[in-house]
Design a protein that fits this description.
With 727 residues, the chain is mainly α. It is 22% helix and 1% strand. The protein has helices spanning 4-18, 90-93, 136-142, 156-159, 175-185, 191-194, 248-258, 290-294, 333-337, 348-354, 382-385, 398-407, 447-451, 456-460, 471-481, 512-515, 554-558, 569-575, 603-606, 619-628, 634-637, 659-662, 701-705, 716-722; strands spanning 55-57, 64-67. The chain has a two-stranded antiparallel ribbon. The protein is elongated, with a radius of gyration of 53 Å.
């Protein structure tokens, strides 16, 4: 009871002081929460920084009666104290007694050593314990530049250079932002001169700790077949990639000098290898096309395809100037073939001298003169023409054949004043048959008439002045004797040219196709021999029969279910005016021509609902095929329903799905020819989005190959993430 007055006095004082609080109007707490009756100084051991406020429990009832406010707890405010904040003097942050004037922002207490290059929120990188940063990798990942390979071991100042070493200005995520000097200074090869990309990652591996690479873009000198090697030093022998010559001999001089079959040096072959060789390994196949023009035709002419290797003709491998013909052209056949040829000798040089082009001509080729020998001239004795010597022998016909001209009586050449140029009518094969080309000046000869132009008596009967030029003048007997059909009974005109051509009586040019029914075209072409096959009444060719060939029960069976069908010839013509099974309708004239497997598909398969308005998109007919396809499952893989994007109209397989362009290269690159079927990688047939790399890339080999690679994980998604192009 003695203490009660003092307590009342202290409470009264506290109430009075609350009205005069120096901490501002916003702080409404009991002074005793912080201060004691001993004075305004606050002992450190009275603070509770590391504990959250606890509810106050009644000792009598055990009920919760509010929060324990007997002591001030900074953690109950909007700024909990942790780390170094729990150990600093209050006045370091609260410069005045009005505590609400202290800002919650880091920058209000801490000087921005980074000069606004990373923002003002210290907590993004630092914690309250110290200023050290231990999540640099995550920070770079969030900013779009993951630290890999050498980047993960570089110090911050290697990239973020500044005078204070504390500015971290954004320098960009492109390689060239940091490596411009490396790019410009690289001389082997000179990147700038070669026009190389400034994206270092196109050639260099970010996971490596040096600039070595095996991914050089070598388009300026395509590496194909034998050149497709991974060891750069094979060609760039001195370590200089800038001045490596692109000529064949710069790499293959030793190959050139050591080649002995044939000896390239002795034969003075070109040092430009591509003139004969491809880039196929082992130098074969090779084609020395210059051989034809420079020496002797072996890729053309009579010797084309008659040899397999150089040694067939060049039997001395140390001297390709030597050759042999008589290995193939043996005796006695060769001697027999040259019987009677003056100057003939059986040896290889003589063969070449007389046959420089490899053909059957002799050293002297009369055909190279202005009077080639053909026909009977070939067997005529030289003296017959060259009686006065060889020089100045005339080449006109009359110089030799005037006597033959004057004695010709059928017809008389002199009486008709036929030109003395024998070649205008005759050939060198003989006097007959003659073409008499000037006959057209009197009567045009075509077709069969032209064929008998050499047999003048057939039409002229020895009289070349009064021969009639009408058809009936020669062909009345042919007209009267014709029975299929009987021209006279049918009263056909006697102008043969109305139906027949001049080539032959048959086929006739009677326009049966255009006027009546197609028999020279369409389905009936070649199916008949004579008119009587269809026209069984020779006295009336307006009658015809179809049922002679189209017999039953086959015809009835083919027309089963066709309304209006009747088995008689007029009905046949009425339904099939063009003589084919589909009448005059041609599907290829529509906007959906039939190709491939569509040509053999039954009409009802597509036109089940009728013919009008039938859709032409693939899915309208093939949705079931699409939904039932499970290798791969088109529906689950989300493939388009436009079949023609991958399939042809011939068959479903093979298809041309662009797996390389859309997903992953399997028809090119490292995985080309490394698989046989989809299920090797897509092991879940119900979901082709699932794939497996580890079926082929097994352990421990794969783990060993990735030894020391940061972030490596033995899983298929990780494989694809790091190797999107399969390299």
């Amino acid at each position: 009871m003695r203490r009660l007055p003092s307590i009342i006095l202290f409470v009264g004082l506290a109430v009075n002081l609350l009205a005069q609080s120096p901490h501002g109007a916003d702080l409404k707490v009991n002074c005793a929460s912080c201060h004691t009756s001993d004075g305004w100084e606050i002992p450190f051991d009275t603070w509770k920084f590391d504990k959250t406020p606890q509810p106050k429990i009644s000792k009598v009832t055990g009920w919760e009666i509010g929060w324990d406010t007997s002591k001030f707890n900074h953690n109950a405010t909007n700024f909990a104290l942790s780390g170094q904040h729990a150990r600093v003097d209050c006045r370091s942050c609260h410069e005045t007694l009005v505590f609400s004037e202290a800002s919650l922002d880091c920058i209000s207490c801490h000087t921005d050593m980074h000069n606004q290059t990373v923002g003002t929120d210290c907590a993004r990188c630092h914690n309250t314990e110290n200023w050290l940063v231990d999540n640099i990798t995550e920070l770079h990942q969030d900013n779009g530049f993951p630290l890999m390979g050498a980047h993960a071991h570089a110090t911050c100042t290697d990239c973020h250079k500044s005078g204070s070493a504390l500015r971290f200005d954004r320098i960009g995520n492109d390689c060239i932002n940091c490596h411009t000097n490396d790019y410009m200074a690289t001389a082997n090869p000179n990147h700038q001169t070669a026009g190389f990309s400034t994206n270092c990652a196109e050639c260099h591996d970010l996971a490596k700790f040096d600039w070595t690479t095996d991914k050089v873009k070598h388009d300026f000198f395509p590496l194909t077949k034998g050149h497709d090697i991974s060891d750069c030093a094979k060609c760039h022998t001195n370590g200089n990639y800038t001045n490596t010559p692109a000529t064949c001999v710069s790499c293959h001089k030793t190959d050139y000098e050591t080649a002995i079959n044939p000896n390239h040096t002795v034969s003075n072959f070109s040092q430009n290898c591509i003139e004969c060789h491809t880039t196929d390994p082992d130098w074969m196949p090779a084609t020395y096309m210059q051989h034809d023009a420079a020496y002797f035709p072996i890729y053309s002419g009579a010797h084309k395809g008659e040899w397999d290797k150089c040694a067939d003709c060049h039997t001395n491998p140390s001297n390709y100037a030597e050759f042999t013909c008589i290995t193939c052209h043996k005796n006695p056949e060769t001697d027999d073939n040259h019987s009677g040829i003056n100057g003939y000798v059986y040896n290889s040089p003589a063969c070449l001298a007389c046959h420089p082009a490899g053909d059957v001509g002799t050293a002297f080729d009369h055909n190279s003169t202005n009077f080639p020998l053909t026909g009977a001239h070939q067997t005529t004795a030289c003296i017959d023409c060259h009686a006065s010597g060889y020089a100045g022998t005339p080449t006109n016909c009359a110089s030799c054949h005037t006597t033959d001209y004057n004695q010709s009586a059928n017809p008389s050449h002199t009486a008709l004043a036929i030109p003395t140029d024998c070649a205008s009518c005759h050939t060198t094969a003989g006097w007959e048959p003659a073409t008499f080309a000037i006959h057209n000046n009197y009567y045009q000869l075509n077709g069969a008439h032209a064929a008998v132009a050499n047999q003048c008596a057939t039409c002229h009967n020895g009289d070349y002045n009064n021969t009639p030029n009408t058809c009936a003048g020669c062909h009345t007997a042919d007209y009267n004797q014709t029975t299929n059909p009987s021209h006279s009974a049918a009263q056909f005109p006697m102008d043969c040219a109305g139906c027949h051509g001049e080539t032959a009586w048959a086929p006739a040019t009677f326009d049966h196709d255009g006027q009546h029914f197609p028999i020279y075209s369409g389905k009936h072409k070649g199916e008949w021999d004579k008119c009587a096959d269809c026209h069984t009444n020779p006295s009336n060719f307006s009658e015809f029969t179809c049922t002679t060939c189209h017999t039953n029960p086959e015809t009835n069976n083919k027309h089963n279910g066709i309304n209006g069908y009747a088995y008689n010839s007029p009905a046949c013509l009425a339904c099939h005016p063009a003589g084919d099974a589909t009448g005059s309708f041609d599907h290829n004239t529509t906007n959906f021509p039939l190709k491939g497997a569509h040509q053999t598909t039954a009409c009802i398969d597509c036109h089940a609902s009728g013919y009008a308005g039938t859709p032409t998109n693939c899915a309208s007919c093939h949705t079931t095929d699409y939904n039932q396809t499970n290798d791969p499952n088109h529906a689950s893989a989300g493939f388009p329903t436009d079949c023609k994007e991958c399939h042809s109209e011939t068959a479903w397989a093979p298809s041309n799905f662009d797996h390389d362009g859309m997903y992953f290269p399997i028809y090119s690159g490292k995985h080309k020819n490394k698989w046989d079927q989809c299920s090797e990688c897509h092991t879940n047939p119900s979901n082709y989005a699932v794939f497996s790399c580890t079926v082929c890339h097994t352990n421990p080999g794969t783990n060993n190959d990735h030894q020391g690679v940061n972030g490596y994980s033995y899983s298929s998604p990780a494989c694809l993430s790091c190797h999107p192009d399969g390299n």
